[in-house]
């Protein structure tokens, strides 16, 4: 039997904790609620949760991107529209499972020799090989010389995290430069892995294009060896990519300063519709013989979002180094999730190894990219047709899944409240979530939002 005297003791300890929270709160001159501090409000209104060892836990805010879907799901309006998360939708507004993916899955299910054993820590070997070829090219000298180690990871995010954990343990420079702005999860992934995050200039709001001079200045003054996060193509959230000439200038600077490029390739095929064209930035940095990291995701380009399929490749100076690096990647992965899931990687390997399936995939991919591009055109024309003030040509100039509209957070909140249109508060809209029927509704909402600000 438990000692009953423990109960009042526990109760008084909890009370003491609440009193000290109260004291700290009263001492603090700030009226802001600090989301990292135990909340006075939560403590005082907690009712019976004082009995929990987690009573001090404060409710965290929803994720700025994935939380948009949660809010959308709660909205009963029949005209609601989710342009938050970058997830492809058909012209009918439905999620899409590619036919070629269905065919690959059928093959897998019908193959009686398949088992569900654990994969190695590094994942499915064939998947890794084919993924490296997809991003670096069939004829990549780095692959031929065995200077690349590729490990299967949990989609793009998991690949970034494993790469960052490896760097934090084994690379002398712990600072990573990320573009301003960038995908909202980047700073969290890198900080939690133990890297120190700094930003470099990327987007120029006045031109709605690339601030190449700012970028070169910032990277030019980065400490030697600093890690530089680069979006391989279809920059999220801005939809602004460097031209090939600009990439070449960036490459020269990065190499001359000995910085370490870490590519995030989450949209290969989504920018131009072509897999090779969208890998050009990465290939420039591999052709020069230098080292780099690449995180690949099959979430968008194969529509395998929830399967969590991706890969981390580290291109090393020699085959020997690559093999030692791989041995250390295993030590990063094993205590994190032991080894990756088998199904999604098997789908990808089935498609990549078969010429017909591969070709079918490239056609599907082009169709998805083209539908997004046609939505850009439709939205641009709808805005022009309404005579909305301002130059909206960035909608057709930007690349990839997103348009960075330039709408501010107040306008976004207004569009959500009045028009049931859901998007991230930075004014980013997922073009993949639009279709011909919903374009007029979005154009009306933007029209009203712009008037609001005028
Ligand atoms: N890198 C970038 C630049 C991304 O935009 C995303 C996804 C990822 C990595 C990670 O993708 P994955 O782990 O699913 O492979 N960005 C989405 C979704 C599409 C998200 O935020 O998770 C977005 O809406 O921005």
Keywords:
pyridoxal phosphate binding, pyridoxal phosphate, Aspartate aminotransferase, 7-stranded mixed beta sheet, 17 helices, binds ligand PLA, Aspartate Aminotransferase, domain 1, disordered N terminus, single chain, transferase, 2 domains, Aminotransferase_I/II_large, Aspartate Aminotransferase, domain 2, two-stranded parallel sheet, globular, alpha/beta, 454 residues
Give a brief description.
By secondary structure, the protein is an alpha/beta fold.
| Widest β-sheet, arrangement of strands | 2-10-9-8-7-3-4
Radius of gyration: 25 Å
Overall 3D form: globular
* Approximate helicity band: 40-55%
- Averaged pLDDT, please? 90
Largest sheet: 7 strands, mixed
Give the CATH architecture of the largest domain.
3-Layer(aba) Sandwich
Give the strand tally. 13
Summed up, the helix count is 17
Distance between the termini: 71 Å
Strand-pairing-aware structural class: alpha/beta
Portion in strands:
5-15%
User: What order do the helices and strands follow?
Assistant: HHHEHHHEHEHEEEHEHEHEEHHHHEHEEH
What is the CATH topology descriptor of the largest domain?
A: Aspartate Aminotransferase, domain 2
Number of domains: 2
Question: Can you identify the CATH class of the largest domain?
Answer: Alpha Beta
Bound molecules: ligand PLA
Low-pLDDT stretches are 1-12, 25-37
CATH superfamily of the largest domain: Type I PLP-dependent aspartate aminotransferase-like (Major domain)
């Amino acid at each position: 039997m438990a000692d009953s005297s423990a109960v009042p003791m526990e109760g008084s300890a909890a009370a003491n904790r609440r009193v000290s929270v109260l004291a700290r709160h009263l001492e603090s001159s700030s009226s802001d609620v600090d989301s990292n501090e135990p909340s006075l409000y939560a403590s005082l209104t907690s009712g019976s949760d004082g009995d929990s060892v987690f009573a001090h836990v404060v409710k965290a805010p929803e994720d700025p991107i994935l939380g948009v879907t949660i809010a959308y799901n709660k909205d009963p309006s029949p005209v609601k529209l989710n342009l938050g998360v970058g997830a492809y939708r058909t012209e009918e507004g439905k999620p899409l499972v590619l036919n070629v993916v269905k065919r690959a899955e059928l093959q897998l299910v019908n193959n009686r020799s398949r088992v569900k054993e654990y994969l190695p820590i590094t994942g499915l070997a064939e998947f890794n090989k084919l993924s490296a070829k997809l991003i670096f090219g069939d004829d990549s000298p780095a692959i031929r010389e065995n200077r690349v180690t590729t490990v299967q990871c949990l989609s793009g995010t998991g690949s970034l995290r494993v790469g960052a954990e490896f760097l934090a343990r084994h690379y002398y420079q712990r600072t990573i430069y990320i573009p301003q702005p960038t995908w909202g999860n980047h700073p969290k992934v890198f900080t939690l892995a133990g890297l120190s995050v700094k930003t470099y200039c990327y987007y120029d709001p006045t031109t709605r294009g690339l601030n190449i001079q700012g970028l070169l200045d910032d990277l030019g003054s980065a400490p030697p060896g600093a890690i530089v996060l680069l979006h391989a193509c279809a920059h999220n959230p801005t939809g602004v990519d460097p031209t090939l000439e600009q990439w070449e200038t960036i490459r020269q600077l990065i190499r001359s300063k000995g910085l370490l490029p870490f590519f995030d390739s989450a949209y290969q095929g989504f920018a131009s519709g072509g897999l090779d064209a969208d890998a050009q930035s990465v290939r420039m940095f591999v052709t020069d013989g230098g080292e780099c990291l690449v995180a690949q995701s099959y979430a968008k380009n194969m529509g395998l979002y929830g399967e969590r399929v991706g890969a981390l490749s580290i291109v090393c100076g020699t085959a020997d180094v690559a093999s030692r690096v791989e041995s250390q990647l295993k030590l990063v992965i094993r205590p994190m999730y032991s080894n990756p899931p088998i199904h999604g990687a098997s789908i990808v390997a089935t498609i990549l190894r078969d010429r017909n399936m591969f070709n079918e995939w490239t056609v599907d991919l082009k169709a998805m990219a083209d539908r997004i591009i046609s939505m850009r055109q439709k939205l641009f024309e709808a805005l022009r047709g309404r005579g909305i003030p301002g130059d909206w040509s960035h909608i057709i100039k930007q690349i990839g899944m997103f348009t960075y509209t330039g709408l501010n957070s107040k306008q976004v909140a207004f569009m959500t409240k009045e028009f049931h249109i859901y998007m991230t508060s930075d004014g980013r809209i997922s073009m993949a979530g639009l279709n011909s029927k919903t374009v007029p509704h979005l154009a009306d909402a933007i029209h009203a939002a712009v008037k609001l600000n005028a």
